[in-house]
Amino acid sequence: MFRSPFPDETIPDQSVFDFLFGDLSEADAARVALVDGPSGAETTYGALRQQVLLFAGALAARGIAPGDVVAVHSPNVPAFATVFHGTLRAGAAASTVNALYTAEEMARQLRASHSKLVFTVSPLAETARAAAAEAGLAPGSVIVLDAEDGLRAMLQEGHAAPDVTIDPATQVAAIPYSSGTTGFAKGVQLSHRNLVANVAQCRNMLDITPDDRVLAFLPFFHIYGMTVLLNIALQRRATLVTMPRFDLTQFLQLIQDQRITFVFIAPPVAVALAKHPMVEDFDLSTVRGMMSGAAPLDEALGDAVAARLGITMQQGYGMSELSPVSHVMPGHLLDTLSIGTVGVLIPNQEAKIVDIDSGQEIEKDPSGPSATGELWVRGPNVMLGYLDDPEATAHTIDADGFLHTGDIALINPDDSFQIVDRLKELIKYKGYQVAPAELEALLLTHPEIDDAAVVAAADEESGEIPKAFVVRHPGSTIDEDGVMAFVAEHVAPHKKVRAVAFIDAVPKSSSGKILRKDLKGAGRP
After folding, report:
1. Fewest Cβ atoms closer than 10 Å to its Cβ: which of 393, 419, 444, 478?
2. How much of the chain, in percent, has pLDDT values that exceed 70?
């Protein structure tokens, strides 16, 4: 078993609100916490804390109490922080919804999470209302934050935050959705202690200071954005500049105009920073550091970005079920660790690498990289379990508390880890998880498709893309464009099938499991 090379951090027995805002000093209250990137509007820490308390009061006045769930359906805008943390302060759990979801996908999450209210923004309101209606939520359950009767009106009601008593170790704070190791998305139950612990574990590893200005385009509804950007930046009293969606021009413009010092990215953005000629048109000299996560970053690509921008590059690893970080490249070790690794175990973290076939633990090799196996992780950041799914929970977290990640890893002599492959079947498109089983189930509803399998196909820009192998019904005339258009009607953009091949039969094992490895190079136009 491997342990973090760093001493354990003390994990406060506090709610997320008390941990982030309980010790807010007068000087910190005057600091700028959030900047709306497009408009430049600023929110101080003091104003944010007050908004969170008023929002919690407004929720309580609407009957929201500990044990209830509130859906947050919004891109990165300052209001997200108020709604998310106000929900937690009221004792309820926030179920964050992908802003790109279709009404069909969103309705599925609303039902599964038992959400009572939905908070959204004007551009997403039509989808939210359709989803709420499909999920059977009560009329008026959708509140549009930027509408006349939205967030501002709620805060003006002046309700005091309720007195709630919660156990941080057991009270669910957030329910992001993850496909875990395989299959459809499941609600990941993260307690207040999970979220507090991961900030405490990471805050000294990431070298974010109150003087930093952090660009936040990675979505807060995703656990990476929720913990690593939103919560860690707030705990460190840095300034977050929000960006509702990624656009390369706006991204570069905001770095220049807002004098951004630190940026969190995913590998597709690294590709643009390394290769796009537009980068030369902007002054990015204020950036001192950049961290990549959500999907593996190639060493050569990381080095190319660092060289072009004259910055330090870091990489980390995690998953929703880990709140999410378990490994990171600490700032003080950047000169010694390869950017091709995900760094070392963070404090309070233990891990095993287990041989897939034998189940034996793999030892570190002092002369070079170890053998590979599945990565197992244990610590205070491991989720409580999947919502309403004890079977999936038991499959993922063993009796000793180790979470089986489904990722294949090795450990180097310097204690750094590398993720070399995935045991799980998820596709990582621009850092977003795409479950093949979901797309396969959808494809099978088409009357002209008899069978289908979806695998990851390598793509330089996106990392991976979903590729469908389709068995057509006899006499069918459906073509590649028809298959892709059908899928696009039902799923969020990141889940679209982007390549299609037609085959005579989907290869399967005797037990009926799709043999995806046999499909990588199969197919014909």
Report:
1. 444
2. 97
Smallest CA-to-CA distance from 87 within 154, 185, 132, 148 is with 154
- DSSP for 148-191, written as a single string: TTSHHHHHHT-PPPP-----TTTSEEE--EE-TTSSS-EEEEEE
Is 126 in the same domain as 19? yes
| Amino acid, single-letter form, for residue 50 | Q
3-state secondary structure (DSSP) of residue 394:
helix
Angle, alpha carbons 512-518-520 (nearest 5°): 130
Helix (H) or strand (E) holding 306: helix 299-309
* Torsion region of 235: left, alpha or beta (phi above 0 gives left; psi -120 to 50 gives alpha): alpha
Residue 314, amino acid = Q
In whole angstroms, what is the distance from residue 261 CA to residue 127 CA? 35
* Domain end (from 353, 381, 411): 411
Per-residue pLDDT reduced to its tens digit, 332-362: 888 899 998 999 999 999 999 999 889 999 9
d(CA 509, CA 346): 39
Alpha helix segments (H runs only) across 312-461: 390-396, 436-443
Q: How confident is the model at residue 509 (pLDDT cuts 50, 70, 90)?
A: low
Question: Do 501 and 523 contact (CB within 8 A), yes or no?
Answer: yes
Residue 159 and residue 60: Cα distance in Å, rounded? Answer: 8
Same domain, 433 and 357: no
**For the whole model, what pTM was predicted?**
0.87
Query: What pLDDT, on a 0 to 100 scale, did the predictor assign at position 523?
Result: 56
H/E element holding 198? helix 192-202
Q: Sheet holding 373-378: strands in order across?
A: 2-3, 350-354, 373-378, 403-411, 417-422
